[in-house]
Amino acid sequence: MSLRHALLGLLSEGPASGYDLLKLFDESLANVWPATQSQLYGELGRLADAGLIVVLSEGARGRKEYAVTDTGRAELRHWLLEVKPVPVRRYDMLLRVFFFGQISEDDAIAYLGEQRQEAAEEADRLAELNETIAPYADNFAVYGRLALEWGLRSSRMYQEWAEWAINEVKAHDRTANPDSCKPD
Amino acid sequence: MSLRHALLGLLSEGPASGYDLLKLFDESLANVWPATQSQLYGELGRLADAGLIVVLSEGARGRKEYAVTDTGRAELRHWLLEVKPVPVRRYDMLLRVFFFGQISEDDAIAYLGEQRQEAAEEADRLAELNETIAPYADNFAVYGRLALEWGLRSSRMYQEWAEWAINEVKAHDRTANPDSCKPD
DNA sequence: CCCTGCATGTAATCCGTTACATGATTGG
DNA sequence: CCAATCATGTAACGGATTACATGCAGGG
Questions:
Q1: Which of A24, B60, B70, B135 is deepest in the core (most CB within 10 A)?
Q2: Domain residues for A70?
Q3: What is the pTM assigned to this prediction?
């Protein structure tokens, strides 16, 4: 149920409409907790029903501006301080690695090479993003930078692992076929 | 839809029952793609309906032994070679970091310290697991080791990041309150 | 006047988790 | 004979994705 806390967190910096929040999500939280429009509006309704947020004002085109209530702020603090984060446990990419026995070693190496490449591109993308953030902006920028650094380190690690794994597969290949000789 | 491919992958090393597969899941795939018993039996039924697997034999206590069909093997290969892995994009732990503005800097540091600790424990756990795997066992062991190495590098990176982030928050604290002086 | 952007909602479907439910076999 | 293990299934619920559906307001 982290979407609700993400919304409470965003609203805790100031009132916003569903539309505003959707943009905030896409700008800042997309890399750690994506959400779709329909999910977002649904959750806002439920948050309002639960009294964690309220409609501050209604504007043009049915625009509703929401603000966090004290109950909502308390819930956010509770989640931040007392609820243990759930570690990620599903890696489509690694699952395939278990089944490398079903494809040729060349195909396995090609797969790992692609992963290496994607990780490198992700690292570049994040490094660039890092440049565009003003050094001392709002709270989101300051703390978002910590998350961004995580992404950078993560994609670098990913890249290095893929390089290491390619060599492992090649070594395994040589053990299995000691007479064959393939070019790099 | 990776559960289905995980099942096809496991079955591609030899026939097994739902019960067998459940144990295989918990032993080898739990860290990259967990599955519950009820999910597994449901998916086996759907795979059989779709003709990707067949019931080889029925044993005692209603035991059904499944085997992959050629269609199933083709589907597995297709998934391995042509379907791009979906990158993980939801990090409960990092989402909280964005909202550090809502808690005190000491609380933020405590949070990061816990994460550092958990990462260290995970690294130890995986290092130990690495020792228990026979050097040249079956395909799963050989390639599973690649995934395990990923986990090791990942938890080390996580740990180092948390240490770095703690210092960042402290530095930010000192910028905000230049006169205060806290013990480490 | 029309297109773009603002703005909100609903419905269908899938995947995953938790809990419930049941029964057969085997070893001590 | 009893407990542990083998073995399979169903039901309820929640969260996420995709697609559908609608309509207003402002600028060119």
A1: A24
A2: 3-82
A3: 0.94
